Amino acid sequence: MTKIKKSETNKKTDQKSVQLIVAKNQELESMLKRTLADYQNLERRIEEERKQLAKLSALLLIEKLLPILDNLENAQAHLSDEGLAMVIKQFRDTLSSEGVEEISAEGQEFNPNFHDAVEIQRADSDNKIVKVVTKGYKIEDKVIRPAKVVVTKKSAGQKSDQPEEVNEVSEYA
């Protein structure tokens, strides 16, 4: 009888041990799954950060190249050289292949998100761009460099439908 009680006690102890082992196994399995999910999220986040870094690097390089394009275009305006025109076209095509677009400005309505007013001229119309001083560029809707423009403002004698705004000259002007 003592052996039977000891045997039942051992069975109960063994069952408790098995239950503890099963519970510990489930806990470790759960931790492993969470750790794997965390690792996959980390890999995805690192990949996104790499892509953003590559985009930022490209933007910084493009921003440094735009003044060179401006100088080439100014030289072409004075020289009218066929070889220089080919280089400028190649330069523009390369920028275009990277998603860079010129911001349309002349004849357009002034938009402070895409244009920088460097001068205001009195005219019959209001907030129209009459001259582009420096071209602006964007990638998708992100402005790399705003277009520096001359904007019209109605003469003092004429009434405008809208309240008069104070246009500040950009710090780049």
Give the key terms.
173 residues, Hemagglutinin Ectodomain, Chain B, Nucleotide Exchange Factor Grpe, Chain A, domain 2, 2 domains, 2 helices
Radius of gyration: 34 Å
Total strands: the figure is: 6
Mean pLDDT level: 85
Largest sheet: 3 strands, antiparallel
Termini Cα gap? 103 Å
- Which fold name fills CATH's third level, the topology of the largest domain? Hemagglutinin Ectodomain, Chain B
- Provide the spatial order of strands within the biggest beta sheet: 1-4-5
Helix and strand content put the structural class at alpha+beta
Could you say which overall geometry the principal axes of the C-alpha atoms support? elongated
CATH hierarchy, class of the largest domain: Alpha Beta
Supply the number of helical segments.
2
In what range is the share of β-strand residues? 15-25%
CATH architecture of the largest domain: Alpha-Beta Complex
**SSE order, as H and E?**
HHEEEEEE
* Structural domain count: 2
